[in-house]
UniProtKB/TrEMBL annotation, chain A:
GO terms for molecular function: branched-chain amino acid transmembrane transporter activity. NCBIfam families: urea_trans_UrtC (TIGR03408). The chain crosses the membrane at residues 34-52, 58-77, 84-106, 146-170, 177-195, 222-242, 274-294, 314-337, 349-369. It is a multi-pass membrane protein. It is found in: Cell inner membrane. Keywords: Cell membrane, Membrane, Transmembrane, Transmembrane helix. This is Urea ABC transporter permease subunit UrtC. InterPro entries: ABC_transp_permease, ABC_transptr_urea_perm_UrtC, LivM-like. The keyword Cell membrane applies. GO terms for cellular component: plasma membrane.
From TrEMBL, chain B:
This is Urea ABC transporter ATP-binding protein UrtD. Residues 32-278 form the ABC transporter domain. NCBIfam families: urea_trans_UrtD. It comes from the Bacteria.
Amino acid sequence: MSDLISSHQAPSANAVNSRHWLAQPFTEKATQRFLLVLLGAVALVSVLHLAFPEGHPLHVSTYTVTLLGKYLCYALLAVAVDLIWGYLGILSLGHGAFFALGGYAMGMYLMRQIGDRGVYGNPDLPDFMVFLNWDSLPWYWHGFDMAWFAFAMVVLAPGILALVFGFLAFRSRVTGVYLSIITQALTFALMLAFFRNEMGFGGNNGLTDFKDLLGFDLRSDATRLGLFIGSGLALAVGYILCRAIVSSKLGRVSVACRDAEARTRFLGYRVERVQLFVFVISAMLAGVAGAFYVPQVGIINPGEFSPLFSIEVVVWVALGGRATLYGAVIGALLVNYAKTVFTGIMPDAWLFALGALFVLVTVFLPQGIAGLMQQRFRRRPEPTAEENAA
Amino acid sequence: MNLIKELAQRDQVFSFMMPSVSPVDVRHGPILYLEDVSVSFDGFKAINNLNLTIDDGELRCIIGPNGAGKTTMMDIITGKTRPDEGSVWFGSRHNLLQMNEPEIASLGIGRKFQKPTVFEALTIFENLELAMASDKRVLPTLTARMNGEKRDRIEEVLTIIGLETQRYQRAGVLSHGQKQWLEIGMLLMQQPRLLLVDEPVAGMTEQEMERTAELLTRLAGHKSSHGRQSVVVVEHDMGFVRSIARTVTVLHQGSVLAEGSMDKVSSDPKVVEVYLGEGH
C-alpha cells in the first residue's frame, strides 16, 4: 500500500520548510494553481449567475449554483478524509459522522432562528418538540439561538467526539482494518441514536423547514449565491490548512507514521498524539463542510450518518487519488456530478455504477485521477528550496 | 561521598528529587544494567535470568545462535517488550521498565533494526531531518523550521554515511546496504548515549563492512555534548565481530553463556559446543 502512495509525491513537493508553517503552502506552485482554479471557477459562476438574465444561454441558474455549492462541501469533506487516509494511513469509514454533527449544529441554529414562524407558532420550541408534547427545550438545545455559539459547536462537537474516540483508539494502538471497522460502527451507532425521537434531534425527519441564516432569507437567490461562495472559501481555507500541515515537519512525521509506525516511535515521536492531532483537525474540517451543506440542501436527517455515505466519501478520494489533496477535490466533484446525472437517468443503476467505478479505479488506476494526471503531464521536477539555496 | 556532599548543598534540589527526564547518571560506571531479566512467550522462555552490564563508552558485541534472545533483549531495552521479571536501568537513575518507547528514545537510546527500516516515501534528507534530536512533541513539530545549524548537522551526517549526492532521492530507491547506512545515519542524528545496532552488516559488501566497522569503533567512546557514546552490536558475522570487538558476550537460550575478549570466548568449550552443535 505504501508503495502505491509513495510514488504520488514528487520529491520536490516536500521541500523542507524554512518558512512559517502557515506560509509554506502559498509558496508551492501546485497549491497556487489549485487556488487559482478554485477561486476562478467560483468567481466565474457568480458572475455568470448575476450578469446574465434568466433564460440567457450563459445564465447559471440558482439551482445549479446551490448544486455546485453542495459539491464544494463534499469536496471539503473529501479533503478532510484524504488528510488522514493519504498522509496518516488512517482509513476512516465514519467521517460522515463528523460531517453530520457539524450539519446538526448548524441545523439546530437554523431551527432556533425559525422562532414563532413554525407551524405551531411556538417561539421557543421547534415544531417537532411541540408535536411530541415537550414543554421545554432539552438542555443541549440551549445556546443554539446564538450564532457564535452554534458556529463554535460546528467545529467543537465533531472535534470533541474525534478527540475522545481517537484518544481511546490510538492509545490502544488500534489501526488498520480494525480502526476502519470501529469508525464504521461509530457512525452507525450515531445514526441509530439520531433516529430516535427521544434524542431530541427531530428523529427520522431530522431538522428542516429553515427560514433564515444570520437574518438572510435562505430562499433568496442572493443568500444561495452567498452560501456557494462561502463553501468555495471554506474549501480554499481548509485546503490551505491541510497543505500547511502536510508540508510541515509534522506532515513528514505523519507519512513516517503511515509507513513505519514502530520506527517513528523509536525516533521519539508520540505516534498516537500525532494521529490524534491530525484526526481531530480532519473531523473539524468535516464539521465545517457539514455546516455549509445543511443550509444549502435545507435539511439534515440521520441519513447523513449512514455508513454507506462514509464509504462513498472514501470512494471519491480513492478515485481522485490519495495523498494529493487536490485529487480528493477532483474525485468528489466528478463522482457527485456523475451521481446527479446518473440518478436522473437511471436511479436504480447508480450504486452499481459507483461500485463498478471503484473496482475499475482500484484495478487500473491505483493512484487515481491525480496519478494519471501526473503521468500525463510529467514535467521535469521543480528544484526544491534546498537546491535553490545550494 | 558524592551523595553526602550533595546533601550538604542546601541551595540545590537533591538529585533524587529531580524529575526522571534529568540526564543519565553514569557516575557509577555502567550506562546499561540488566538484572535477572526473564520473559516468556506462550511458555517459551525467550530470556532467562539475563544479567548484562554495559559500561559508559563501551563497544560491546553480542553474539549467539538463532533464538538465543538477542532481538528480544533489544526489544526489552527499548520498551517494546515488557519482561515478566527483573530490572533494567539506564545509568543509575532511569528505570526503563517504567517508560514507553518514545520516552526511552528521547532519553538517548537509539536503535537500528535488523531489517533496515527507513521512511521510503521520504527523501534521504527528510529521513535524517525527522531523526534529528529536537523537540518531538506535536505542536513544536508542526511549527519546526529548517535553519542553517540544523542543515549543517544533516550535511555532516550525509557526508559520514556517504549519501550526500543522493540527498533528494527517495529512500525507497536505495540499495539494501545504503539503507543500512541511512539508518545508521538516522541514529547519529538522534545523538544517542547508547546505540543498539541489530545486525548492521547484513547484506553489505566486504568494503561496506569495513567502513561500518570503522564507523562503529569511532562512535564508541566518542564524546558528544551530552556525554560519551556507548554501542551495543548484535551480529552473526564472526569476521565482523572479530574486527571490532573488545568485549564479546555470548547469549544462549536467553542467558549469558560467556563473556570476555574474542579470543577467550572463542576458546571457551561451552561456546564451541553451542556453535558446533548448531553446525557452525
